[in-house]
Amino acid sequence: MICLLLRVAFIGRPELILNLDELQDLMQFFPTLDETACWFKCSTDTIERRVKNEWKMTFAEFRKSFSGRTRLMLKRKAISKAIEQDNDKMLIYCLRTMTDLVDREKSDNRQQEHLVRLAYTLSTLDEDDLKL
To answer: How far is Cα of residue 114 from the mean position of the Cα atoms in its chain?
Structure first.
């Protein structure tokens, strides 16, 4: 009888009770999978398995969906720093990342590079190639 009890006690690891609210709250810091596993003192597989079972998504999707509030707070801070503190660098950063604004100078350089490549390609083609 004692032998049987010992066998039952050593079959598999005890189930880790993972506080799902704490896991969601932790995502505001955008932790890696390794950092999350370290926080809960378990394996990365355990975290991935729990997220998949509970929310039907990967860890990366889960982290992204529960870190949205933090991303919005950071955007708000960047915008206020750009506007209220009249910070030109932050203003340019906000314009580039939050709009589809493209640096005209860079865009013009890219167009110029394409034109140079096209001119070179055309100059290397002979008459037979041009007829195709």
So the answer is: 31
3-state secondary structure labels for all residues of the chain: CHHHHHHHHHCCCCCCCCCHHHHHHHHHHCCCHHHHHHHHCCCHHHHHHHHHHHHCCCHHHHHHHHCHHHHHHHHHHHHHHHHHCCCHHHHHHHHHHHCCCCCHHHHHHHHHHHHHHHHHHHHHCCHHHHHC
- Is residue 39 within 8 Å of residue 31, measured between CB atoms? yes
- What is the C-alpha separation between 108 and 118, in angstroms, rounded? 15
Tokens 């998949």, located at residue: 52
pLDDT in tens, the chain (132 residues): 444 444 444 566 677 788 999 999 999 999 999 999 999 999 999 999 999 999 999 999 999 999 988 989 998 998 888 888 888 888 888 888 888 777 665 656 666 676 767 666 656 666 555 455
Structure tokens given for 42:
């378990």
Amino acid at 21: D
